[in-house]
Amino acid sequence: MNRAVVALAFAFVYATAAQGANVKILTAGAMKAVVLELVPQFEKETGHKAVVDNDTAGGLAKRIEAGEAFDVAVITPGVINDLAKKGKIVADSRANVARVGVGVVVKEGAALPDISSVDTFKGTLLAAKSVAYIDPASGGSSGIYLSGLFDKLGIAAEIKPKAKLKQGGYVAELIANGEAELGLHQISEILPVKGVKLVGPLPAEIQNYTTYAIAIGAEATQPDTARALIRLLTGPAAEGVLKARGMERPPS
Predict the structure, then answer these.
(1) Residues ≥6 apart with Cβ < 8 Å to 58
(2) Distance CA 77, CA 148 (A)
(3) Is 8 helix (H, G, I), strand (E, B) or coil?
(4) 49 has which bridge partners?
(5) What are phi and psi of 85, to 5 degrees?
(6) C-alpha separations of 133 from 73, 108, 127, 193, 206 in Å
């Protein structure tokens, strides 16, 4: 076999491997559904296969710091900035994608509690037999915020014995299966769960928005393809997907 034939064979193998390469996407909880819905379009446009892995923002930070390989991550801006300082993220690749507020959820068919003001929301929490939310120790942004909010409202001691903490995933699942009466989680993670009803967002005075940003890993094997995902998530194709999940673009 002459050198030209060998060169062509290697070129073919390389091109085929590149075309079919996996693009590893790490995403924090609230953005998982958005990313998964846009994956088919991403794969069609790029010819690459997306491999999506989900965790809390804190969990992803620990994994990346420990050296986990990935191409692109969708996490909170603060985590991305910190990882960029540690050389784990391409700093100038960051783009803010969306933000989402915290909502209240009950089982489908249950009476909707009053959460129209801070006082009525507080009363609803105290009256509930059990309250589910993300375990702050797991690194979930909503759980961390709610833990501080209970302290601020002066009801942390009352909430603690009836708290149903979830390590990750959908808090609303605890409501659907009857493990908890009332749930608090980001709205985008309430809407996909069947058998529950979104009561509404927290009162404006105590609402907390979590912003999500996307950035490329410093050791990404597919950086150009990762940039294609950034364009997709920040472009018009994502608008309807975000809105359907209770999310919105962050203020510029």
Answers:
(1) 79, 138, 139, 140
(2) 20
(3) helix
(4) 22
(5) -65, -25
(6) 24, 18, 16, 15, 16
The reply to whether CATH 3.40.190.10 applies to domain 102-206 is yes
In order, the DSSP letters of 66-103 are: TT---SEEEE-HHHHHHHHHTTSB-GGG-EEEEEE-EE
Please answer whether residues 122 and 155 qualify as being in contact, where contact means their C-beta atoms are separated by less than 8 angstroms.
Answer: yes
Distance CA 211, CA 218 (A): 22
The answer to whether the 3-99+211-244 and 102-206 domains have the same CATH topology is: yes
**Would you list the domain boundaries of the chain?**
3-99+211-244, 102-206
Helix (H, G, I), strand (E, B) or coil at 177: coil
- Mind listing the pLDDT tens digit of every residue in the chain (252 residues)? 455 444 444 443 344 444 568 999 999 877 888 999 999 999 999 999 999 999 988 899 999 999 999 999 999 999 999 999 999 999 899 999 999 999 999 999 999 999 999 999 999 999 999 999 999 998 888 999 999 999 999 999 999 999 999 998 899 999 999 999 999 999 988 998 999 999 999 999 999 998 999 999 999 999 999 999 999 999 999 999 999 988 999 987
CATH, range 3-99+211-244? 3.40.190.10
The CA R_g of the chain, rounded to the nearest whole Å, is: 21
